Amino acid sequence: MSYRPRSTNTRYAWNASAMLGLFLCIILIGLAYYIFDYTQNLEDRLRSLILSEYYTELDTRLGKESSFNKRLHEALRNGDIAALNNEIQEISRWLQPESLYILDKRGAIITDGTDDNSRQGQRITANGVDLGEEETNANIKQAGAVYFPIGEAIDSNGFVYIEHPKKTDTLIASITDETAAFRNRLGYVFIAIAICGLLVIAVICAVIEKRLSASISRPLREMARSARQFGKGNLTYRIPEEKGMHDGFLQLAHSLNTMASSLKKARDDLAESEQQKTDLLNNTSSVICIKDCEGHYIFVNRMFEKLFHVTNEAVKGKTVYDIFPENVADILNENERKVLETDSLHETEEVIPQDDSLHTYISVRFPLHKKTGEIYAVCSISTDITERKQIQEKVFYLNDKLVTHEARFKAIINQSTEGITVADTEGNYTFVNKAFCDMLGYSENELLKMTVFDVKAPNQDPSSFQRSKTSREGMAVRVLLQRKDGSVFYSEVIGKNIEINGEQQVLGTVRDISEQVRAEEKLIKSERDLAAAQKISRVGSWEMDLKSNKLSWSDETYRIFELDPEKQDAGYQTFIDIVHPDDRDFVNRAYRDSVNHKTPYDIEHRLLMKDGRIKYVHERCETFYDNKGNAIRSLGTVLDITDRKLSEQALRRAQKMDAIGQMAGGIAHDFNNILGIILGNLHMLEKQLEPDRKTQKRIDDIKYSARRAAGLTKRLLGFSRREPANAKASNINLIISGMSGLITLSVTPQVEVEHIFAEGLWKTRIDPGDFEDALLNLVLNARDAMDGRGKLTIETRNVVLDEAYCMLNPDAKPGDYVQLSVSDSGQGISKEQQDHIFEPFYTTKEKGRGTGLGLAMVFAFVKRSGGLIKLYSEQGIGTTFHLYLPRDIESPVAEEKADMEGVSLHGTELLLIVDDEANLVDIAKESLEAQGYRTLTAHNGEQALRHLAENTDIDLLFSDVVMPGSINGFELAEQARDMYPYIKILLTSGYSGKVVADDGEFKDKLLSKPYTLAELSQRIRSLLDGESSGDSG
C-alpha cells in the first residue's frame, strides 16, 4: 500500500489525547514517589529508634562483660559448636531478637543457637537481601539486621561499625518482630496506594491505547515483526501500509518496504554475480583453487574436483597435506608462502601426481585483498602443460640432431634442383643453397649480404614475404625475380616458419616456373581463341565425368542454352530441363546407347526456351573408357543449327510452293483447254439454237461457272508464274488510291478503313495488276477475320533492311524496300496456323467460304517481285501483313524527308531494352553499346519493372508492345512514367503504329517492326535530345 498522509484534524486529536495521557502519568508518578519517599523516611526513623535500644543494651552488656567476646572467639577457633550455642542462648535472653545466627566469612550459617544442625552451611536472607553478600553497613541496616564481627575492635559506645563484614566471622541478629510488623504495615499502605495509582494509570492508558492502537501499537508491532523477518533474511516481507497509520509510521513503513526491496535486489544481484563468477571458474580448463592465509581451502573449481577426485564442499577447511603427498604439499605450501610474503604474483612450474602419472603444471598465484588492503586469501590458477613439455623435449631433441648433422644436411640440400633459402624475420638471407645461387647468378657470399627484397623484380608487391612469414602451414606465392644480369623470371616460392637455435626463421623453396607460365599463357590464349571461335561458329563444348557425374559447359554452351553461368550450374538435369519435352526420351536413349554400346553420339534435337521459342541443336560426343572397359568421361560439342533449320524449312516451303505452282500451272493449262472447249461449244449452241428461257438460264449458269473456273485457272497460272508479266516502276500510293472505292465496297459498312501514305515513297518494279489482286486478297482476308466489324489500316513507308535484320530473317536481303502493311483488328492467327498460312489450298475459313489460294497468290506475287512477306499476329489483338517490295533504284526519288545525316547518334545514357525475342534484344544491345550507350535488358514486363525499381537513372525505355506475361508494352510504359515522370519512352511493334497506338498517349512514340539499327539509333537520339517541345518521353 502506498503512503497517504492523514488529515490535519485527525492528527490534532491524536496529539491532544497523547498530551492528556502523558500529563496524568506525570501527576501519578509524582504522587507515588512522594508517598514512597515519605514512607521510607518514616521507616528509617522507626528503625533507628528501635535499633538504638538494641545498641544501648549491647553497649551495656558487652561493655561490662568483655569476656563474652573472648569466649565467642575461642569457641569459633576451637570449632566448639556447643559453646557457641550457649553464648547465643545467653544473648537471646538479653536481646530477645526474632532470630540470631553466627555466620562464617562467606555468609554461610555456622550455628543458630539450637541443637538442630540442618541449616548449617546455608545462606540466609532478610527482606530479599543476601546478608552474606553485603558490602556496607548501610546496606546491612537496609536489610533490617545487625552484624557484629567476632574478634574485631568495637567503638567506645560498644557498637560495631563494619566496612567489610566478610573479612571475619560474623554474628548477625534480625530485627525485632515489632519493628518488622510496623514496617510491613507501612509496606501494605504503600502497596495499596501504588496499586490504586497503577489502576488509574492502567485505565487511562487503556483509553489512550484504544485510541492510538491503530496508529501506534499495531504499526510498532508490524515494524517489530518486520525487523525479526529482516533479521532472519526474509526480505520479501512487507509492512502493510494501512489507512489508519499515523503519517510518521506510514512514511517509516514505506521507507522500510523500499529499503527491503532495494536490499533484496542487491542481494539477488550479488548472488547472480557470485554465481556467474562460480560458473566462469567452473567452466575453464584450468585448475583453480582459493586458500586462506593459513593454507585452508576456501574454494576449488570443477576441474580441480575432476582431476584430484574431491568435492568443493568436502575440501573446505583442509590443506594441501590432506590431498597431496607430503613432498608435493611442501612445494605447494612454499610457493603460497612466497606470495603472502611478497604480496605479489608468482608463476611457477610444478609437477603433481595425478592418476598414477606425473603431470606438469604452470601455476600462477596471486594474493586477494580486502578493502583495507589486508590479504585474506591466495588464488592459484594452474594449466596442464604436460603434452606441451613432451613436444618441446622432442623439438629440442630434433633440433640437437639437426645441429649435429648440419654439414650432412647442407651437402644434401645443395644437391636439390630447387632453390632453398632461410631468411630471418627482417628478410635477410641466412642460408642459400647452390641451386638458388645458380638460379640468380649470385655467389653464396653475395646473397648472404642481401635480403629477399633485393632479388625481386622492380614494382613487385613486397607483401608476399610478409604472407609467407606469417603462414605456419606454408603457402605458394608467385613472384617475379631478377637475376644478377638484370633479366627476370617467374618463380614459385613456398614459405614456412621455423625455429633455428631459438630464433624465428622463414624457410623458403624457390622453383623457376618460367616455362610453366609461358605454357599457361598459351593455354589461356588458346582457351580465349577457342571461346571466340565457338562464339563465331555457334559451337559449344561440354565434358561429362562419368565417375562423379559432374558436367561442365563452355561459355558458348551456356549462351546457346541461354543460361547464366553465375546463376545456373552445369548439370545433366539442367540440360534435360531445356530439351523439348517431346525430344527428352530420344536424347536420353541416344546418349545411354552411345555409352553402353560404344557407338557414336550424333543427334539433332530441339530446345524449348523460357519464352516459348524453339531452337535446334546438333550434338556430337565421344566417350572414353578405362582398361577394364568402363566409361570414364565424355567429350562433346553442341552446334546451334536454328538458322539452318529455319532456312531449310523456308527452302522446303519454297520448293513445295514451286512444285505446287508447277503442278497448278500444268493443271491450269489443261483445264483452260477444257474450259475453252466448253465455252466455245456454248457459244456455238447459242448461235445454232434458239433456246427458251429455261434453257437459256442453264446455258448462262454454265457460262458463269466456266468463267469462274477460268478465273481460278488464271490464279493458278499466276501462282506458277516466276516472273511478273507486266512489271514496271510503280508508286503503290497511286495504285492504292485508285482502289479505295473497290476496297470500301469489298468490306462492310461496320469496318473502318484508314489509309496512311508515306511522303516521298520510293517506286518499286511490280506488275500493277498482280499488286491489286494481292492487296484485294489481303483486304478480303482482313474483312473475314473481323467478322465484318472493326478497323482496317493500309500503310506505306520506306524501309531499309540491314545486315542485322537479315541475320534474323534468312529469306531477306539487305537493301531499300517499299513496305506495305495491311492490319486488322480481328481475332488473330495462332502459331500453328501461321506455319501453313501461305500454302496453297490451306484455309482457316469454314467449308465453302474460301479456296485457300488467296494468301498463296499474295506470297507468289511478293516472291515474283523479289521481295518478302512477314506475318505478325497475336490472338485477340489482330494481324498485320508486311509486304517488302524492292526499291526501283533507276526511278527518280520523290521528295524525301531530311534525315539525320551529320548528326551524332552516340550517347552515354542508360537504356532499358525489353523484347521477348532474345535475338532482337541481343542485336539492339550490341549496336547501342557500340555507340556508347549503357544498356539493361529484359524479356518481359515483370523483369523490366524490377530493373526500373533497382535503377533510378534509366533515361529511356525501349519496349515491344506485345509480350508474354500479364504486362504489355503500353502498361509497362505507363508504370514507368508513373515511377519516373521524365523517362523517355519508345515502343515497337510488328503492327502498324496507327493500329496499336491510335489516340493513345504513346501514339507518336512507336517504331514499327522490322526496324533497322539506323532507324532505332535515330529515334532514340531524337527522343533523348527532345523530339518536340516539352516532350518527356
Describe what you observe in this structure:
The protein is an alpha+beta fold and 1033 residues long. It folds into eight domains: 138 residues, no CATH class; 111 residues, Beta-Lactamase, CATH 3.30.450; 107 residues, 2-Layer Sandwich (Beta-Lactamase), CATH 3.30.450.20; 108 residues, 2-Layer Sandwich (Beta-Lactamase); 123 residues, PAS domain (Beta-Lactamase, 2-Layer Sandwich); 58 residues; 166 residues, Histidine kinase-like ATPase, C-terminal domain (Heat Shock Protein 90); 116 residues, Response regulator (Rossmann fold, 3-Layer(aba) Sandwich), CATH 3.40.50. It has 31 helices and 33 strands. The strands form eight sheets. A five-stranded antiparallel β-sheet has the order 8-7-11-10-9, with helices on both faces. A five-stranded antiparallel β-sheet has the order 13-12-16-15-14, sandwiched between helices. β19 and β20 form a beta hairpin. α1 runs antiparallel to α5 and α2 runs antiparallel to α3. It is elongated and about 220 Å long. It starts with 7 loop residues before the first helix and ends in an 8-residue tail after the last helix. The relative contact order is 0.03.
